């Protein structure tokens, strides 16, 4: 696309690689150039923490606010009770009000690290769609809103079509999700003058639904903008690792493990991730991304430090880097390594190496752990051990034991 944007926000996201699609580039760009625009991204409260897969759009909101516009983080207190069926093979488990409130609290701590909810005309706003969804009258909603939706068109959306093509059940509850999300956009436009919904490209159908509904009911022009669904250069879904999701809350994933995830970025992804996940100038991102050989490792450390400092603070980033240098360069035991703390009672009769590998999170199951050990991929205190049945007594833990799976994944085991 050869379009040259007028607004700082559109120019920034196009240059840094955030933009996948937009309903009307030129009209949205004009609105952004002419004054402050309000935009939102919705987040269903399905877990106690957001994960790295959410971070791209959180950074999008950060740039939106930095360039003078007003971001809304919309918590799905209402829509979480239904569950988004988009590109899922099964129905989400239903959560009660208490679980949803706990999850929203955990997610809010992450947003506070990236957005300013306190100062200025463009201070961010956090809303909960339960505010308008919980009190809906079903018959009125069907009459006033449901009549604007074509079932034929809803069935044509890829997120629904792919589920039906695989002959997997799609409940009526889930089928209503796209209507509720469209209604969110209508209400945000009516109540807060919100002109833009942003999200991942898998949300395109839901976003377009909201635009159509708002045009039909309020006769207002609003916009949709999507970001690409990222995968790493080796084809893996962004945010997934051998140990599972890369959570953003420190109690679910330590700052060191978070730092290490970014330090392990492939050479080919380093420049791209610097543009997307840091606030470094674009020229610096391109310079660092172009480094080769051993020099690219310093670019990866800068990436890990920048992303970790933004989420967990400068001290956590420095501690993680120091731990990594101690572990990898000096062969030592870093103070900040993920630690499995066992009670003395748990090792009274001894504990096997296979159990330690699973308990420490270095393997998903006993089978995986035994295979890792048999393959010689596990070290105990920097020495390879191939005996999965090796037993450890309480006296073996006078000093912490370091477990290493390959060169990049480590954990300490202590006994209180």
Which properties best describe this structure?
tyrosine-tRNA ligase activity, 5-stranded mixed sheet, 416 residues, single chain, 18 helices, Rossmann fold, alpha/beta, 6-stranded mixed sheet, Tyrosyl-Transfer RNA Synthetase, ligase, Structural Genomics Hypothetical 15.5 Kd Protein In mrcA-pckA Intergenic Region, Chain A, 3 domains, RNA-binding, globular
Descriptive overview:
Homodimer. Catalyzes the attachment of tyrosine to tRNA(Tyr) in a two-step reaction: tyrosine is first activated by ATP to form Tyr-AMP and then transferred to the acceptor end of tRNA(Tyr). Its EC number is 6.1.1.1. The model has no long low-confidence stretch (mean pLDDT 88). This protein folds into three domains: 8-227, 3-Layer(aba) Sandwich (Rossmann fold), CATH 3.40.50.620; 254-328, Tyrosyl-Transfer RNA Synthetase (Orthogonal Bundle); 339-415, RNA-binding S4 domain (Structural Genomics Hypothetical 15.5 Kd Protein In mrcA-pckA Intergenic Region, Chain A). The protein starts with 7 loop residues before the first helix and ends with a strand. The chain has helices at residues 8-16, 25-34, 52-66, 97-114, 130-133, 138-144, 151-156, 158-165, 172-175, 177-192, 204-218, 255-263, 267-277, 282-289, 295-312, 314-328, 353-359, 366-374; strands at residues 21-22, 38-43, 70-75, 125-128, 196-200, 223-227, 240-241, 244-245, 339-342, 351-352, 378-380, 383-384, 391-392, 401-405, 409-415. Helix 10 (177-192) crosses helix 11 (204-218), helix 12 (255-263) packs across helix 16 and helix 17 (353-359) packs across helix 18 (366-374). The protein is of the alpha/beta class and 416 residues long.
